[in-house]
Design goal:
about 325 residues, alpha+beta, Endonuclease I-creI, 3 domains, about 15% strand
Length: about 325
């Protein structure tokens, strides 16, 4: 499989627990593959189309979680044999109304229907922006083989949509740009560090570590391979620990909220989220009063224990 396929396969299991983030990710899928259509009788229906079978499965899971729409309530057709396109149509009026109201594609009285790329109200929170980026990549994104060159892109139909997508990425200090390509507009990034950062934003932590490894191996010469391999192993351990810490903190944030933590744990949680690459010693130096490396590690372990207890209680293991 390609690197892009590996990333999307990893993201398939990354649906957020918070409903507002689920809506943001669903809005991204619809922004790139969704449309309103009418049947012969003039009734509105909602259609989603994708060339990726994995994305079609994510879509079905999303509408099941958000609207309680089951697979048997969707009209699924597959067009083509080699280059297949999966068409999924929601036909029941009550389900169509739910979808359009949730996406803000209609007013509260349902008198005006107007699809938009994304309503700003759906991505006000930082976590929702992350979810939207994940959905956009699933629907219309790709990453080149990092062993050859670094290139991340999301293909948009309209320039205005591409500018909105670029701004969402730039919110996270990513160096995203827009270029016209034939009849499309492509939002892209070329720096390896930008791509590792966006993988982290989307929740593709394994792919992020794999890319780190590629970047490290491409940047070393043969005469220092042994030393760098040792450093890589240590870096991987550090990254794995930091990824787990951030994942646990984000889980607590998206469920009960970080404000429910004790003050000493909450302070560490915010600093870790704001500084994903910082080592424990430097985190401790930012605390007031300053705390040693072992003290910071103890607090982060306690946060992880709380997250695991929450997962057990909520059945999210």
């Amino acid at each position: 499989m390609s690197f892009s396929s590996d990333v999307k396969e990893e993201l398939e299991t990354k649906i957020d627990t918070a409903k507002h983030c689920q809506i943001a990710e669903y809005a991204a899928l619809m922004a790139f593959g969704g449309r309103i259509r009418r049947n012969i009788g003039g009734e509105m229906q909602v259609e989603f189309a994708t060339e990726n079978e994995l994305v079609s499965k994510v879509y079905i899971e999303m509408i099941s979680k958000l609207f309680g729409i089951k697979e048997h309530d969707i009209d699924v057709t597959i067009e083509g044999k080699t280059n297949r396109i999966f068409h999924m149509v929601i036909k029941k009026p009550e389900h169509v109304a739910q979808v359009l109201m949730t996406l803000k594609w209609c007013d509260e009285q349902f008198t005006t229907v107007q699809p938009v790329f994304v309503d700003a109200r759906l991505i006000q929170k930082e976590c929702c922006k992350r979810a939207f980026i994940r959905g956009a990549f699933l629907a219309a994104g790709s990453i080149s083989d990092p062993n050859k060159f670094y290139h991340y892109e999301i293909v948009c139909e309209y320039e205005e949509d591409a500018e909105i997508m670029k701004d969402i990425l730039c919110f996270f200090h990513l160096d995203a740009k827009v270029i016209a390509r034939k009849r499309s507009y492509v939002v892209y990034m070329k720096e390896g560090n930008n791509i590792t950062d966006v993988l982290n934003l989307m929740g593709a932590f394994v792919s992020q570590m794999n890319l780190y490894n590629v970047m490290i191996l491409k940047g070393i010469s043969n005469d220092v391979n042994r030393k760098v391999n040792c450093e890589t192993a240590n870096l991987n351990k550090t990254i794995e620990a930091a990824v787990k810490q951030i994942r646990d903190i984000e889980y607590i944030r998206d469920t009960i909220g970080l404000e429910e933590l004790k003050d000493n744990l909450k302070e560490v949680a915010y600093i870790r989220l704001e500084n994903p690459d910082m080592n424990l010693k430097d985190i401790g130096d930012l605390l007031d009063p300053v705390v040693g490396k072992s003290g910071v590690n103890h607090r982060l372990r306690k946060i992880s224990e709380i997250a695991e207890e929450l997962r057990v209680e909520r059945g999210d293991e």
